[in-house]
Amino acid sequence: MTISHSPDTGITISRATLTAWAGFDLSPDQLARLARALPFSSVPDAVGTIADSIADSAVEVQRSVPVPAPPTVARPAASHSRR
Predict the structure, then answer these.
(1) Is 3 strand, coil or helix?
(2) Tens of pLDDT along 18-71?
(3) Is 13:2 a contact under the CB 8 Å cutoff?
(4) 4 Cβ partners below 8 Å, 6+ apart?
(5) Where are the alpha helices (DSSP H) in 1-83?
(6) pTM for the model
(7) What number of other Cβ atoms are within 10 A of residue 12's Cβ?
(8) What's the CA gap between 70 and 12, in Å, rounded?
(9) Quick one: which of 50, 16, 51 has its CA closest to 3?
């Protein structure tokens, strides 16, 4: 059994993960109750906090990446010959 808050996200939590997080094997009834309760728990807030942290990290990474200098174009040497 997997739990997904929104089917279009493609993110699921496996029964094995839920069991590991719970610390004990969850019955089918407990899994169903958990699936109904998750959207109303602190999990969505925790995911939002984690997502904000990831977004902030991405911004910091973008800021820390040096911006390459634009390529220089060599100009032909000026001719100083007089006729």
Answers:
(1) strand
(2) 999 999 999 999 999 998 998 899 988 998 898 888 887 766 655 555 656 556
(3) yes
(4) 11, 12, 13
(5) 15-22, 28-37, 43-64
(6) 0.51
(7) 13
(8) 44
(9) 16
